[in-house]
Request: fold
Amino acid sequence: MQLHPDILFSIFCFPVTNTIIATVLTDIVIIIMVIIVNRKICFNPNNIQNIIEAIIDYFKEITETIAGEKSYFIYHWGVSFFLFIVISNLLVNLPGFDSIKFCNTISFKHTELSLLRVATSDLNFTCALAVISIIATHFVSIQYIGIKEYFKKFITLKMFPIFLSVGFLELMNEFSKVISFSFRLFGNIFAGEKVISTIYNLYSLCLPVPFIILEIIVAIVQALVFSMLTITFMHIMTEKLH
Amino acid sequence: MEIGNKFGFDIRLFLFQLINFLIVVFILKKFLYFPLKKILDERKYKIKKLLYDTEHIKITLTKANEEKKIILMNAKQVADKMIASTSISLEKIKQKSIMQTKQLSDQILSDAKRKASIEFEIASKQISKMSLDIANIVIKKILSNFFDDDEKQKLLSRVIKKINDEKKTNIPN
Reply:
């Protein structure tokens, strides 16, 4: 297993990797889930509506605890990140996820590549999520406290030049958030995948089961960490500067 | 940049993932959160309303219980008063009826006594008259057998005189 995803084929110079296929699969699962919930939406919920309602309600309550009245602007971002990351992480447990192979036609060599690879083990995916998280944080901040107060967080002439340097550090902090977000998720999931593939190579009968359970827990925890951090950063960014 | 390449960073893949996630967020927000939020809010409102109604019913029930207690207390007081007045009037009626009965019985007794004394007087008169008649007949019979007419007349007059004297001494004025 390499750090970068495998390119399966290209469409108009766009490289289609196995993580892209997994992402599309995640999209399909989410769309099916949305269709099922939307079609059977009712006052007395069925099984899938119950699960989704529980997740939404949990995030709503958590966001209300963290951010109070601002939760209306924030909680749906948290739920979206959680659902997308947790579904893409858990898809790896589907049978045939790693075992279905694809013949590479780009290099004209007979190499077999995995058709699917967990999307979060691709830095492009985690980086994209991190960038969206940070942009959304700033967007929510502007939406809630206004553009003037927002800029005051970074540029202020009060106690010049101390607060100016603080603003500069805040700006640097935003870039470091992208790196920390993307590499935390990528590192955890990629390492888990690497461990499981190593264990499979060692002894594939019963030995991988505890690691798979551990990986499921890691998948849920990482999704939760990502969404919680997003909610917390959004709350911090929507606080007015005193 | 070199590190990025090492980790497989590709700007095209990055943009694809970025746009893809934004679309997913849009779909989730539009078709999942809004309808579910509506349902959740509706349910929350209904639960709140039910809780409020329950609280209201509880208060009404408590009030009704208190009113019931007051009504029962009042009713008990009225009933006690009624029982007391009834027992008093009953006692009065009882006393009155006893008195009436006593008077009636006294009257009956006095009437009976009076009647009995009258009857006794009548009976005693009749008895004395009958005894006189019998004595008269007996004497007449005896005298006719043992005495002649002159002796009879003398004796008879003497006896009658004696009887009359005795009668006068026996019967007080």
Chain A has one domain: 7-237. The first helix of chain A runs from residue 18 to 39.
